[in-house]
Amino acid sequence: MGYYEQSVPPVRDTRLKIGDSYYGDACGLVDCGREGCLLQKNRGFWQANACQMALTLMMAATVENSAIVVHAPGGCGALLHSLSVQSAKGRARRGKEPKPVPWLSTNLTEADVIGGGEKKLLETIKYADREFRPEIIFVVVTCAPSIIGDDTEEVVRQVRSQVSADVVSLYCPGFRSRVVASAYDAFYHGILRGLELSPKPWVDYRPLPQGSPDAELAEENYRFEKSRTVNVWNATSIGPGDEEEVRRLLTALGLKVRFFAEYSSRDELRMVSEAALNVSMCNVHDDYMLKFLEEKFGTPYVIAGMPIGFRHTRQWLVSIAERFGLEKQANALADYEEKLAKEAIEPFVEQVRGKKVLICGGVVRVGAEATMLAELGLHVLGIRAYHYDDGAEPVFEDVGRNLPDTPVAVSNQLFELTHQIKTLKPDIVIAHNGTQGYIAKLGVPSVQLWSVDSPFFGYTGTYRILRRIVFELKNTSYRERLSRHVRLPYRPEYFEGDAFKYIRD
Ligand code: SF4
To answer: What is the CATH number that goes with domain 213-328?
Structure first.
């Protein structure tokens, strides 16, 4: 049985060749990944890891007119308090009503863990349907019901005939995967199994009598429209500014652009099949879904890294354009945009030239951003990817060609990041959200690797990143003062050894 037929999605640990513990260089990483030695690597000590459910919730909380039922003990859903605010802000920035996300927890107790939580789940789904009248109810299956063996699939099957909403199961217990990116597959698995992804007659269109001239004309118009339509797949780390930049560039090529699946409604999701091409903005997010759409609807896809920096943006644009015979136009557009952007970034480039930078976060983004910054004259001291899988091979082959001697680590461990900052002494760290507090306590300036408040993609993104780096390099007093008064929990001896001494084969 293929992955898409199974009720429970695969985790990245089984679907792809992955790794989360490595230190060396980019070429070594690519080789190690291919040969399978990455799978053998582990750590003798782990500080902490993330739960995949958090990222699945992040995506689900953005879907329009939905409600979320977290089948778990009370604590698992706590993150939704902040996610609700975040998704309301995302809606407002996209011109939608900034509504909070209705969410409920089955609040499993010790007695439920012994006796089972299926009845509670059934009642909670029915309550969510009655109370909030959502179009979609996401049922989030976490560790506790997965361990005790609740048959949540059967509950969902039964409840579908009793509620008006579409009920979508999201299987994302944290213990199943060491790779938090499994969360994206869990979200898309629920969407592709639980929702209609093609238009319905009499709901989305009016069927015309076969053979009538009107029907032929309508069909022809529709085919033309579809032949120019691209679905671009977003994610929580891709903000409205990134979407605007991508839309601006692809529209300049004459393409019609739609974004999925975040901030989409059930009606919009039914139009997913009606496109000529699916475009990834990062394969870590969406390769699972794009492969499904090709298998199910025959829609081809493009996965070409991230459009960060001039070179990657051009490659990304051209790889989309060549599917429509528009390579020449894409290159002309890139020439024009690069010329404008170079003039705009000139004053900043001088100020960052030679600055030492450490970059850490998602595997595709760190690779693309590292080579971009190196091309702009910064000295990349190190690259840290949260995980590595075979989908990131092209990105790290590119890093290997352009930055062959730059140290590369696969690490999501804060103690290793802290050690590297302390010993490498970068002028600035570009780091994933959530780590800025640690970096600030070390007195080092940092910039977020992504931010939904500011674009990182395309030409506007390059300008904004540089401007942000310059600002941080000039405004260091908060961090300096913080580092004088706040201590991190590590003893000085810890920084004497190698940062990656706990990595084992
Ligand atoms: S790891 Fe399991 S128990 Fe912990 S928050 Fe995630 S789903 Fe809940």
So the answer is: 3.40.50.1980
